[in-house]
Amino acid sequence: MLRTPSFVRMTMAAGLVLMSFATALHAAAQAETPSEFVATLGDSAIRMLVEEGVSPDKRIANFRELLLEGFDVPLIGRFVLGIHWRRASPEQRTEYTDLFEKFLVQSYAARLGQYGGESLRVKATRAGGEKDTIVSTEILQRGRPPVKVDWRVRSGDASYKVVDVIVEGISMIITQRDEFSSVIRRSGGSVEGLLARLRERAD
Amino acid sequence: MLGERFRPRALFGGLILSGLLLGGCTATGANGGEEFDSGVRDPFETANRLMFAVNLAADAIIVRPAAEFYRFAVPAPGRVAVRNFVRNLSSPVILANDLFQGEFERAGTTAKRFFLNTTIGLGGLLDVATGMGHEYHDEDFGQTLGSYGVGGGFYLVLPLLGPSNLRDAFGTGVDFFLDPVNTWARNTGRDGIPIGRTAAEGIDFRARNIETIGELQRTSLDFYAAVRSLYKQTRDSAIRNGAPPPLPDISYYGPRRQPGEFVAAHSTAAE
Asked: What whole-number distance in Å separates Cα of residue A101 and Cα of residue A98?
């Protein structure tokens, strides 16, 4: 039998996928226009979701890399904390920034399982405020109506970064901010209450 | 059958009465309600959270199992037919609200859909209109009020029906009375029909969202607050007929700077 043992093929395939994943990330970083950036980011995300033979830990690590590369996570974290950012001590801010990143990776990695067999199509681009570009896309799923997803993209020092994702009119960062501000309010207005919950979640 | 004939009027009276009660609540709630970033006021949060917990319990015990069974027992084409059918039944209400909003093109779409799907689509079981370029859209009286600038008022969690607000709860009542199927059912004593229809809509929605709702419930730190925010944003989006939402200011200097806090915000933003 000349057939390669399946685990070898699996390892090879995983390696190839990872290589193309790294290339895609690189391409996203090098993108010349916001729409090109979103298209590349979307493609690498979808490729990441459908790749086989990858351990859950590795998948989360890949997702984390993609998130940090493509999203301005510190800025989003600060927006989400809203008015409470200023009330937080420097130590609390540092801890929050770290915990928020973990929270994002965990909650979105958990949601990834529902997706599969999608493709992303860039529909249009428009200015979003003074600084940003909104890239309108459709995520096409088999047997379901397409989902309208708008990516709010800001151009950073070296590359583009996503600062908000708006799914069918629902802003990810506003939802997150409403939720966090409710947690803070219910723990007597202290940021510590939110940090405690995030710590719990991170363990 | 005097009683039967009077029932709608009694119900309508009840609606006005509850509208007045709710209206009275607005006046008292206006001061107590804190405004959140997405603009929701929730002066009755304690009561709402309690109702939310009751609804979640009902969901865990009855609604989700029913939705899971429905998805397991009825093959996909059957579920699509159920969905098409309940949607087609709502066409008159959607049409009325399209017209109330002066959206004549959308009203035309709704009318064509109703005609095509009721006839060629075998009483609404098939959605043949979408294939002919007449796509479905939703409208209700809450959206109509919203399109004339009526704000949501305070947030409400209704028994079984779930998230709502003053405007939309009132709108739901108006839509109920606008609906010819409900009127016919009421006048002929078939009270089970509106209930069965609402149940079918609920189970259909729940069955299509088992994973999404489950993940949100598992990953959120405050599921109640997340749903409240999602409800507000979804309704605002529906009122805009899907036009893009206003963009919040995202900057390192922080949103919603308050007078007197500027210096502190500015000095910390430099780090």
From this structure: 5
Task: Give the pLDDT mean for B176-190.
Answer: 93
- What's phi and psi for A163, nearest 5 deg? -110, -15
Q: pTM for the whole thing?
A: 0.82
The answer to whether the beta carbons of residues A38 and A135 sit under 8 Å apart is yes
Q: How far does the CA of residue B85 sit from the closest CA of chain A (Å)?
A: 18
Q: Decide: helix, strand or coil at residue A165.
A: strand
Domains of chain A, start order: 5-202 (3.10.450.710)
Angle ∠(B85,B87,B88) on CA atoms, nearest 5: 65
**E strand spans, A58-174:** 119-128, 132-140, 147-155, 160-167, 170-171
Of the residues A81, A86, A133, A167, the best mutation for testing chain B's interface (the one with the most B CB atoms within 10 Å of its CB) is A86
The Cα B187–Cα B1 span in angstroms is 10
Closest C-alpha to B245, from A140, A177, A164:
A164
- Residue A12: pLDDT band with limits 50, 70, 90: low
Measured distance CA(A156)–CA(A158) in Å, rounded: 6
- Give, for A60, the enclosing helix (H) or strand (E): helix A56-70
Radius of gyration from C-alpha coordinates of chain B: 21
What is the domain partition of chain B in residue ranges? 13-245
Token couple for B250: 């995202």
Strand partners, A127: A133
ipTM of the complex: 0.83
Average pLDDT over residues B23-39: 44
Residues of chain B numbered 178-217 and touching chain A (CB < 8 Å): 211-212, 215
Q: Write the pLDDT tens digit of every residue in A130-149.
A: 889 999 999 888 777 888 99
Cβ–Cβ gap A169/B229 under 8 Å: no
The C-alpha atoms of residue B110 and residue B217 are separated, in whole angstroms, by: 35
Question: Shortest CA distance to A47 belongs to which of A116, A109, A137?
Answer: A116
What pLDDT, in 10s, does the model give residues A31-61? 778 999 999 888 888 777 777 777 878 888 8
pLDDT of residue B72: 96
CA B63, B117, B82: angle at the middle one, nearest 5?
A: 15
- Whole-angstrom CA distances from A178 to A82, B16, B119, B221, B223 are 9, 33, 46, 11, 11
Separation of first and last alpha carbons in chain A: 48
